[in-house]
Amino acid sequence: MLMKNTRYVIAFGFAVVLALLIAIAVIAVREMGSVNRQLLAIFEHHSMNTDLVFTMHRAARERALLLHAMTITTDPFDKDERFIRFNEMATEFAIAREKLLKMEVTPAERAILMKQGEALAVSVPLQNRVGELIMAGRTAEANRVLLNDAIPAQNMVLDQLTELINLQVRLGREQITRAANAYRYAYAFMTLLGAAAFLVGVVIALYVARRAAQAENALFHEKELAQVTLHSIGDAVITTDTAGRIGYLNPVAEQMTGWQAAAAQGEPLNRVFNIIDENTRDPIAPRSGAADKADAAIPGSEHVLLIRKDGQEFVIENSSAPIRDSDGRVIGSVLVFRDVTRARFLAQQLTWHASHDALTGLVNRREFEHQLRQLLENAETLDKHHALLYIDLDQFKIVNDTCGHVAGDELLRQLATILGSKLRESDILARLGGDEFGVLLEGCPLDQAQRIANELREAVQDFRFVWLDKVFEVGVSIGLVAIDAAGGHDLASVLSAADEACYAAKDRGRNRVHVYQPDDTELAQRHGEMQWVTRINRAFDEGRFRLYSQSIVPLAGARGDASHYEILLRMIDESGDVVPPMAFIPAAERYGIMPAIDRWVVRTLFQQHGQFLRDTAADNGGGVLFAVNLSGATVNDDKFMDYLRDQIALHRIPPQVLCFEITETAAITSLNKASYFMYKLKQVGCRFALDDFGSGMSSFAYLKNLPVDFLKIDGSFVVDMTHDPVDYALVEAINRIGHVLGIRTIAESAETPAILAALAELGVDYVQGDAVGAPALLDQFIAPATRRPPAATRGKRPSKPKV
Among 93, 170, 288, 333, which residue has the fewest nearby CB atoms (within 10 Å)? Predict the structure, then answer.
């Protein structure tokens, strides 16, 4: 009975155990299946969301990089290819976002996507606008929109994507935690059932162990999936434990630090992540989020350089955040960083171009005015003394017109180097536009500023610009303005004063420094070239132009034997004083009045003194010449030749008594027209002189093509020839070449007997200057009996030219 009962009991017990085993099996399979399904769902949802978000992030960043690349590329095909890629990235971004919106997302994710949509509504039109500007060739405007608007808007989009990534990481962690909790519940329940079925413990234990191993394998698989996700992230990622020792590096972090993950594991963070301050080069202690109590990322320091293991440096942006377990305890930290070297370089380039001149590399006008404002404030508040130099080149147009803009650009670059070499490190040299430069002398009293200004002037004066077979002399006119607390100037008034001082230097003969004084009578008279236009017109209305003459005398023993007289023009101002020609001629040249002035000179000379010219020609057989100056604008005037012929015929002027003087600069600037003009008038008996020779290009080659009879040696060489061997040699060379070409020479500015003796020794043909005769009114030179005008013109006042 006992055995029977025992069998029943054993059978019953076996049945119970079997039932328990079946129950354990059913429950275990169901619970493990549920956990597996949860984990699989988490993985699939997380993977798909992550892939779409990173696709959007990559497309957004690549669009921004393509815009940067398009602004600096000069290859139109490369620019088109990048523009096509730019549009493809927009399509890829839109498709990924649309897929993400269709997926099952949490309210928090959807809220971020909505914010991102608002940011996109701002960013995309701006980026498209930049792309259109670039493709339209408006690169400067594209750079401005890109820096000021498109990049900040794009950063807002990237910030929303980063926030979405962080949210997905947190949601994945929460879902994994819930799955783990379900697993622990199932594991506990199976353990209880296993205890109840202790009699079959081995079988149940093996079964439970096997199921536990399967669950662990599933969790390990999830860990591997998480690592794969970290490998696919475009930013560098480093994880550490609570002690700050490295546990993991993703491939981007390996590449940027130069450390392999296996070698870096267990190393202190500051050994692998070696960062310094970009400006001071001081080491920076890496900031770890492990000890922080907040879950938000901790931004890293600005201006950070990462030094790779091999010494290469990267400019980076970085942040860190704590890693917590399911109980909220900090178990480590994650450090995320990315290389922004290229972006920083592009930003610095854009900043540099915004404040510098592309041709010379000097500060541009905008930055110059900014620095000038600071000096004005500094002078007023701290009672400091500064100075402003306004520099204008005197011969730049000759280089541009004769050799082209390429030569002019090279001249500006060389002059920028010369001027910069004469300044202090604290001074600011800028190109203000065209052939104008500006200098700010900080902490510089007026006397020292005058010395520096003259050093700059002398350095440019000593410079010779060589282009192909031509040599040019260049001068500068400099306006100097003192900046101090007593001045009370604003930006506009200081610049205006400097401009007036510079033009005063030009009016006084160029190649000089003029210091601005508020009560300067010269500046008050000038006050802008337009004022001279009004004064010239008023002088014509009031009959205040006068003809003067100066003798051109043959030297004893020279080849020249005819007497010359140069006809000069003077203007009488409102006060009755004589205005020198260099005070109003530059304004007349700039505003196109010279052709009218030259016509007035010719008409007045012929009308009032035609009889004297005819008598002189008859008495001397044409041996006397009257030289009339013609401007470059007049020579280029196609109608002037006909006008001159008509005047000669109308007043019956013998052409052989006329000699027209054309400056070297005017002749070279329009060589073909000047040659044609000379040949045509020489056919009727007129003669020509090349004036101010040596002040311009100083090349003898073109003399072969100009039918000139006289070569006038520039007075700047003659004045100093008795004590300057270089000037003496230049006068000698010009005289010798002129004689070889069959051209008689005239030396200007012969002021002393010593100069006359030196010129005679060299064999110069003629001299002109105070040593042989100062300029005098033509009315005083010509006797009243011989200067009566013809009946047709007697008693008439000269008509005013149309200016």
Answer: 170
